[in-house]
Write a structure and sequence with these properties.
With about 675 residues, the protein is of the alpha+beta class. About 40% of the residues lie in helices and about 10% in strands. The chain has helices at about 1-10, 15-25, 45-50, 120-125, 140-150, 190-210, 230, 255-280, 310-320, 320-330, 330-345, 355-365, 375-380, 385-390, 395-435, 440-445, 465-475, 505-515, 545-555, 560-565, 595-625, 645-655, and strands at about 70-80, 110-115, 155-160, 210, 225-230, 250, 455-460, 490-500, 520-525, 530, 545, 570, 575-580, 585-590, 630, 635.
């Protein structure tokens, strides 16, 4: 019963949240200061405006023909909006001193929640459930979710002020105060961050929603519209409304900043139709949107070394590599950054972790708090003494140095870290996307048992590390390692169905070759189309066949083997062997180490992937009847006429080894930096 009622009430606060925020739209604290220089990381209004989702361009060699395209689905992955620091740092010597604006953080927006309405509890009590038993009937679950939003019902506001003195008296000793000294929790979404996600919701609404009442996309091609609110106005039955599960799938970890970011986005995207439905509801039930989440310390939406200790080992290996030492320890720029930190920022030791360095700088700069003089570009940017000593553009170089350090880990050893991180993430995303492939659904369910019901819109509310890993897992052309994902960054996967129609025969062959499944995808990150950067996708087109995305990520999205992949590898130097052991020190396998140890580790993991994924991949290839995979510079035939699984495995292995297909680089010992 606990599971059912908690999921049913996860989003009942949305309308009140929107109302509260509307009243505060003009609060000056959420406005960025005119004339001040903000890093792109901060996502000012101007910076977010540049991320508008572009219309699909059909002025390409092939898509300008007589084909018909229909938008079927959009998966959106966002980074949360502006937040408070995620840890209690000592960023510089005076950072936590009393009276400094960095020593105390107060928040003007709070989380709201509601208990399930009494009528929902009464209905549950009629179901004769055993202790700990959940409802088996999906229709009854839907009914309970709907009843949970019934009025009247209290809303509960969560405020971090129990051990806080608004008069700054010494009544509360320091060891009783919250980590940030005021009324904010660690990593809490701010009012500015809430507004950033409302703007994201507006970007999505402008791109994918039609609503004549709001003069929104009234003249747009209906096949390019995901949601037609004019048609959905009269659909008020719970479970069938445009924003209900399964039409909308909302996934978040259990952080306040990610859940509320998703709430803000969905409230803005669906607010008009939600308000209309509420007016038509005689019972005035608050709409309930399910948030699918997990125990925070067991979730995988961000790198989690607790459940995947191999990640810590890969990071350690990256930082012990010669390339890391050359670029981030002994290079002239590395020595310059360390000297700068020692002289102006109370010591380099504070910034050995680039996550901490960026958290210190960005949360201070983006919230208009006081930076050290040397990090405030508006004050020190023209200081000739600093320029003479450290050259110009010091602050930008400081940010870039730490950005490159972080990206190095995600790109190290052919993106090993990113592929491990995104294994369960891509598995979850594909569970929603595979429904739009040409595969036989019954047979696909056997190979992929966790397929979800088809949805129109899937939202993943997550972190900068989530987006970093997703981009890096798609290869160097997609992630160049130059930009840290800004607040409210947005990564979209659009799915289109193609009807080639009466295309001339000379072009039909090309289209059949390029789009064998007649289902295409487009990747858009912060307003930029990325498909042409993916190996195997056409340079001149904005669309690529969905099989190319699946082929890229299928090999490292097999969730079944993730536990083994996450085990720590232990090296026995005495016998020149790599001994793989589990957490209880039981030997899993022993193999001879040869050449570069990091490369050997990667080859072992790749081999495990190949054999574990062959069965599922064979099923997918067979079900979609996709017999040819185009890769950069190579077209490797993957004929289904192999005599057995071993032959097909060898063919797949050859495709990876000899090309840059599947999101992997050629098999060698080169470390990508």
């Amino acid at each position: 019963m606990k599971d059912m009622t908690s999921s049913a009430t996860a989003f009942v606060a949305a309308l009140l949240l929107v109302t509260v925020t509307n009243l505060m739209d003009e609060v000056h604290s959420i406005q960025f200061k005119p004339g001040k220089t903000y890093p792109d990381y901060c996502s000012t209004q101007k910076q977010q405006l540049s991320r508008e989702i572009p219309e699909l361009s059909t002025n390409s060699p092939l898509l300008s023909l007589n084909e018909t395209l229909k938008l079927l689905h959009v998966t959106t992955v966002i980074r949360h909006g502006d937040r408070t620091p995620w840890g209690r740092h000592t960023c510089w010597e005076t950072y936590l001193d009393k009276g400094e604006d960095t020593a105390e953080w107060d928040c003007s927006i709070s989380s709201l929640s509601a208990a399930p309405a009494t009528i929902a509890i009464e209905e549950l009590n009629t179901q004769d459930l055993e202790y700990g038993e959940t409802l088996k009937s999906p229709s009854k679950q839907t009914e309970i979710s709907y009843l949970s939003g019934a009025n009247p019902s209290f809303m509960f506001e969560k405020r971090y002020d129990a051990n806080y003195s608004p008069t700054h008296s010494t009544h509360f000793p320091e060891n009783l105060g919250d980590h940030l000294g005021g009324t904010c929790q660690l990593g809490q979404l701010t009012l500015r961050g809430f507004e950033q996600q409302r703007y994201n919701g507006r970007l999505l609404r402008n791109a994918y929603v039609k609503y004549d009442k709001q003069v929104l996309n009234s003249d747009s091609d209906p096949d390019m519209i995901l949601f037609d609110f004019d048609e959905e106005e009269t659909e008020t039955q719970y479970g069938q409304r445009v924003y209900d599960d399964p039409s909308v799938y909302f996934r978040s970890d259990d952080d306040q900043r990610t859940i509320m970011s998703g709430q803000a986005l969905l409230s803005e995207m669906f607010g008009d139709i939600m308000a209309h439905h509420l007016n038509l509801d005689a019972n005035k039930h608050n709409p309930v949107i399910r948030v699918h989440t997990s125990d925070r310390n067991r979730d995988f939406l961000a790198p989690n070394e607790e459940i995947c200790p191999r990640l810590a080992q890969v990071e350690h290996e990256a930082k012990q590599s010669q390339d890391w030492k050359n670029e981030f320890e002994t290079s002239e720029e590395a020595r310059t950054m360390k000297k700068f930190a020692d002289e102006y920022l109370s010591g380099w030791w504070r910034y050995a972790d680039s996550d901490v360095a960026m958290d210190c700088f960005m949360t201070t700069a983006c919230s208009d708090r006081t930076l050290p003089y040397a990090l405030d570009v508006d004050q020190s940017g023209t200081d000739q003494n600093i320029i003479d000593k450290y050259r110009s553009g010091l602050v930008d170089r400081w940010v870039q140095f730490h950005t490159k350090r972080e990206w190095f880990i995600y790109q190290y050893n052919s993106y090993e870290y990113s592929k491990i991180v995104t294994n369960p993430i891509w598995n979850d995303i594909l569970s929603g996307l595979l429904a739009f492939s040409d595969a036989d659904k019954h047979e696909m369910a056997k190979a992929w048992p966790d397929l979800r019901e088809p949805s129109k819109f899937a939202l993943y509310s997550a972190h900068d590390s989530t987006i970093m890993a997703l981009l890096a897992s798609l290869g160097y052309g997609v992630s160049d390692g130059r930009q840290w994902p800004a607040y409210a960054s947005m990564f979209n996967i659009e799915i289109y169905k193609m009807d080639l129609g009466p295309v001339e025969s000379e072009h039909k062959w090309e289209l059949d070759e390029m789009f064998p499944t007649k289902t295409a995808f487009r990747l858009v990150y912060n307003g930029q189309v990325l498909d042409h950067n993916i190996a195997g996708c056409p340079d001149e087109e904005e669309l690529c066949d969905i099989d190319m995305l699946i082929v890229h990520v299928f090999r490292f999205s097999n969730i079944t083997d993730w536990e083994d992949i996450c085990k720590v590898e232990r090296v026995d130097d005495k016998d020149d062997q790599v001994v793989i052991k589990d957490e209880d020190d039981n030997v899993i396998t022993v193999r001879r180490r040869s050449g570069n140890a990091a490369a050997t580790v990667f080859l072992f993991i790749l081999t495990a992937f190949i054999f574990s994924c062959t069965g599922a991949f064979m099923m997918y290839v067979y079900l979609t009847r996709y017999n040819s995979v185009k890769t950069t510079g190579v077209e490797q035939s993957l004929s289904l006429n192999h005599g057995n699984d071993i032959e097909l495995t060898n063919a797949l292995d050859a495709a990876v080894t000899n090309s840059e297909g599947y999101g992997l680089t050629p098999q060698n010992d080169t470390v990508i930096t």
